[in-house]
Amino acid sequence: MFEGVLIKAYGGFYYVKKGEEIWECSLRGKFRLGKNAAALVGDRVKVTPVREKTGRIDEVLPRATELFRPAVANVEQAVLVFAVQNPEPNLTLLDRFLVLAESAGIQPLICLNKIDLLSGRREHHWLKLYRRIGYPTVTASSKTGEGVEALRQLLTGSTSVFAGPSGVGKSSLLNAVQPGWQLKTGEISHKLKRGKHTTRHVELLVLPSGGYVVDSPGFSSLDLPEMEREELSRYFPEMENFTEDCKFKGCLHNQEPQCGVKKAVEQGAIHKERYQNYLSFLQEVMQQERRY
Predict the structure, then answer these.
(1) Quick one: pLDDT at residue 183?
(2) Residue 222 belongs to some domain of the structure
(3) Which of 57, 89, 168, 223 is deepest in the core (most CB within 10 A)?
(4) pLDDT the model gives residue 60
(5) What is residue 50's predicted lDDT score, i.e. its pLDDT?
(6) DSSP code of residue 113
(7) d(C-alpha 251, C-alpha 257), whole Å
(8) Is 19 annotated as a binding residue?
């Protein structure tokens, strides 16, 4: 038996990296019958050899982190890719994924792609907002190569997942980061102004400079993770400085009087759209509590 990293699950087979070798494996029966995903890309697994470079996964080792959409384990960094335009940035979706990543213990990195479409401006108003809050950001263009080396350095030495809506250029950006991967790319559907899904399965890619990158299917919606309603504001870090001004302990910053966060929104210290997204997410979390 040996230990390896699950780099791809496709067509009922699981591909495990052992050193420089790739082993094609099946999954032990008891795992296939489990309620939750038995083995995710990124898992460290124990494999029993069956024949030359084929084996059976008999054990999935404990995970440090776990995401479900995309389904991937042991990720340290989530690179959230959005485009300047084509398609336009969906900030509600970005906020949703920030909550999902941080609640899973994964460090987010916001990547603004297609920077060549800024027509001379080297900044984007919403990127300034997230940088001011404290989120790490990077700008890039797979077309011109701008920012690609900076992104490559940020990926080196960690396990990162690329995620974002379809059409923002995740696969093109990964091809620019590591020429030779030749990941399939797609054009924008002009009728819907949304990208055509080009990545059909989740795969762990090996960076020659060290580390792994997960190329995952684009997404258009995300369910928030289960949490207590009081927990949600932790994932809006700009609120932290103002919660001490709230009159009531456990304030949800919604309908409570004398709320420091609401006052900060009125004064412009907290961005109104971010706050509206918080309120929308809060309703979802409360509905989840009632269901469970």
Answers:
(1) 59
(2) no
(3) 168
(4) 94
(5) 96
(6) E
(7) 9
(8) no
Is residue 131 one of the residues assigned to a domain? yes
Check whether 172 is labelled as a binding-site residue: yes
Considering its fold, how many domains does the chain have in total? 3
In a domain, 12, yes or no: yes
- Angle (nearest 5°) at CA 67 between 62 and 72: 70
- Tell me what pLDDT residue 172 has: 87
CATH code of the domain covering residue 241: 1.10.40.50
Do the annotations mark residue 25 as ligand-binding? no
Q: Please report how many Cα atoms fall inside a 13 Å half-sphere around the Cα of residue 265, on the Cβ side.
A: 18
* 106 marked ligand binding residue: no
Q: Is 116 annotated as a binding residue?
A: yes
User: Is residue 261 marked as binding?
Assistant: no
Do 15 and 125 lie in one domain? The reply is no
Q: Which tokens sit at 88? A: 């336009």
Containing structural domain, residue 32: 2-60
- Domain assignment present for 224: no
Residues 55 and 74 in one domain: no
Question: Is position 111 annotated in a ligand binding site?
Answer: no
Whether residue 181 sits in one domain with residue 104 = yes
Last residue of a domain, one of 187, 215, 243: 215
Q: Is 209 annotated as a binding residue?
A: no
**Residue 233 in marked binding region:** no
Q: Is 189 annotated as a binding residue?
A: no
Residue 216 among known ligand-binding residues: no
Average pLDDT, 10 consecutive residues per value, the chain (292 residues): 93 92 89 65 95 94 85 91 87 93 93 84 80 95 93 94 85 86 49 43 85 68 85 97 94 96 97 97 92 64
CA distances from 15 to 22, 106, 202 (A): 6, 24, 12
The verdict on whether residue 271 carries a ligand-binding annotation is: no
Helix (H) or strand (E) holding 216: none
